Amino acid sequence: MTVLWGTSFDATPISGVVVEFVKTARSFREQGYRVHLDLGYDVKADKNAFFRPYRDEAELLPGWVRLDRIDRLDEVPGYGPQFVSDVLREYVQQGAGEHLLPAIDAAAEAISERIVETWERRNVSFVMVENGTLPENVTYTRALYSAIERYGRRHRLGRFVLWRDHDLMWQSEPGIRKYGEFPYPRTVAPRNSPWIHYVALHEEARRRTLEWVPGLANIDVLPNTFTHAPAGTPRPGGAGGFRREHGIPEDVPLIARCTRIIPQKRIDRDIHLLAGLAGRTGAYLFVAGDTAEAPDEHARLCALARSLGVADRVVFGGRLAPHEADIGSASGDGYSVRDLLAHTAVASFLTSYDYESYGNPIGEAIASRVPYLTTRYELYDTVYGDKGFRAPVMELTDGDLPTPSFVDSVAELILDERKREEMADHNHRLGQRHFGADRAGELLAELFLTPMGERTRMSVVLPVYNEADNLPAVLRSLCEQRGANGPLDKSLYEVVIVDNNSTDDTVQIARGFAAEHPDLALHIVPEPEQGVACARRTGMDFASRRSARRGQTDSEQRFYLVSADADCRVDERWLWELFTAMETGKAAIGVCDYYYAPEHFTRRPRLWEAIQKTLRCRAVTFSLFGGFPDGKGFAVDRDAYDKVGGVEIFYQLQNGRFVNHLSDDWDFGIRVRGSGEDIAYVPASRVEINPRRVNHAIDEVITGRAYGSDGIIVMRDIRVPEPAPDREGDLTEEEALQAWEFSIKDFTPKNTILPVLLTPSLLDDDAVIEFFGPSLAERLGQRIAEIKDEMRMADFTPIHSYKTPSYRLYFEFADEIFARLRATVGEDIGHPPPLPPCLQDVPPERFDEFVRYFCEDRESGEAHNYFGNGGVF
């Protein structure tokens, strides 16, 4: 499984940085990534955790986040907290310390090697760096840049790093010159890299970053996001006892402050505010933060509360689990920020002017539909005020502590429930627009779809599940495609591999192939939901988005999504013939020709004969009607793909569980045909089918159960790594006849009748009239109109809508249709298979009537069993 690796420079188990990483990482987890997080204990020297093993930190994070760290950093000579502190003090802040440079370089080289080694062992494919430009650890930052360069070149991962800066030097205590002065000459600045995409919290942060590094090319805005759900309902077993456990009366208003308890956060302002409210509101103040981080500051605040006479109404509640509902204690016996907000009248953020701490408390209050109050700190207007959010704002130009007028405005808000509701509702609606949880996924998709070349016209989508044995040959065949006069220009196409939870070396083989063939663009995309249909959809959607977002191209050019299968072989001109046919015609879909290599069937002549008869019929009807796509090989115009909503996954119940069926390609083609688009058959574009498809499914073909039974359309996935049935010997004559009859019963309604049912105008085509004969073509058209009117059916494209009329038309016209197949394909096609026993004794004059009953029987599934072999050949 592919891994997202997070590196935090914050060195705390829970902080705004860590919470934002978790929220962003959730988008990757939903795509099938396993999430690892390094909390940065071995990065920051001032958190007293350097080289300290993890303890209970995991309890504060979701179960799907695995805490991890770079292996063997404690073995790097000279690297430790004192060294990091010395470099920060002497080299960064004092502008001296050149004597440290050799040690910095040596340690950075050793750390870089360990980072790469760790990523290799973990199978990392994406990296998120949080707070990455802080110069507190120049050595580690240099090492990380070096490791990214090495790893990116080795695996050709494109921009596989999201480098996010929440706490740049210009907004983190610039008054004390903690990180030197602009332009911070001793800091490791962001650099242009083909492997890194930088993101800032807002436009002001982006502007200041570009002021610092004017030539930085890849930087965008990715704001904090929140799950907008009111916090008014305490979670079961959690918030109900919150007030009781913390000694807060049930009937008093509560002011919430979620913060680190350090001087820069200015919690003293909240205590002065509480004192100013005394006698008017009876409010309590709850401070959620680690009292042990800065014991002197905690002691100072307690003394202040006592001196102002409000010590009995100030509660230091300790660190709470984060705001997001699924991040809290798994046991349910702890409390989260959302539990606190469920009991809060107003949330407070009276921070220092130059210490934003990226404003999570305000965002969390907005998302929870709780009003807030704040100072007008340096970035407040940029993030919130200029967007129209409403709150009492303490103007820092009026003094360092809350003024009487500010205290009055807070008291009015606390005492006026209607005003609180209106303010909270307004902010909540506005917050959903600007900071809704879906924004992260949308922006990530926009930022990290690898740029597509201007000349690229095709994306070949290849779903894979444990295809380590077959994949090298398939990839070679795709890499060695030929055009009209030699090798096909690889700038015309790319390959998108969709890994569907492989447990073998499939992904490693794909990466190795990409590294060995840098001229062929190859992307690996995970799909966690098992099933080739889900994987194909993910790959097609991925390619569609990428192509739609690339730079300006010729508006007349079409872009094609191409489906291939990892266990089949494509001929060397497969892609070129498909591309040429699509370019010279107007069809929305191009369907390939398929064949089996005869050497696999030399000892099975009866099976070979049954297969060939089916494929000969296919060649004739596909030439007439265009056919329907098969995942083994087809191309679709991207605009047509998007117009019908892409590949749809259809679910049915099997043994009490929902499963996705495997005819997504077929149903997709039906929707495209039903939308009025044409489908073209491209016989020169050829795909060799892997004989294991027959070997794994032949018993189901013989018994008519290849597509399930009793109305359940579930075909065995022949790609699962199970031993094939013992079918090296040939079929008996009886088995061969059964296999052929089920194959042709499946084939005829779907490939001879369904096209004209969906597009009756085909019956006006000269070639179609010649195939059916004028009389049969005319009567088919009339009967289709009658059935459509009788069934009150406006649309035959839904999966079950077309089956009943196709089956009815088959029974009514089977003799005539088979006569035309014999005349066109060959006499060996024979006559229609025997009717179902229930129809054999029906009086001729009532035959059509009982055919309808049979085909519409929703209880027995008999019609499905009669027709539903699935055309595995």
Characterize the structure shown.
It comes from Streptomyces ovatisporus. One of its GO terms (molecular function) is glycosyltransferase activity. Its EC number is 2.4.-.-. The protein has 873 residues and is an alpha/beta fold. It has three domains: 3-221, Rossmann fold, CATH 3.40.50; 239-439, 3-Layer(aba) Sandwich (Rossmann fold); 458-845 and 858-867, Spore Coat Polysaccharide Biosynthesis Protein SpsA, Chain A (Alpha-Beta Complex). It is 41% helix and 13% strand. It is built from 29 helices and 23 strands. The strands form four sheets. Strands 16-15-14-17-20-19-23-18 form an eight-stranded mixed β-sheet, with helices on both faces. The protein has a seven-stranded parallel β-sheet with strand order 3-2-1-4-5-6-7. Strands 10-9-8-11-12-13 form a six-stranded parallel β-sheet, with helices on both faces. Strand 8 (254-258), helix 7 and strand 9 (284-288) form a beta-alpha-beta unit. The two termini are 33 Å apart. Residues 234-238, 325-332 and 717-726 have low confidence and may be disordered.
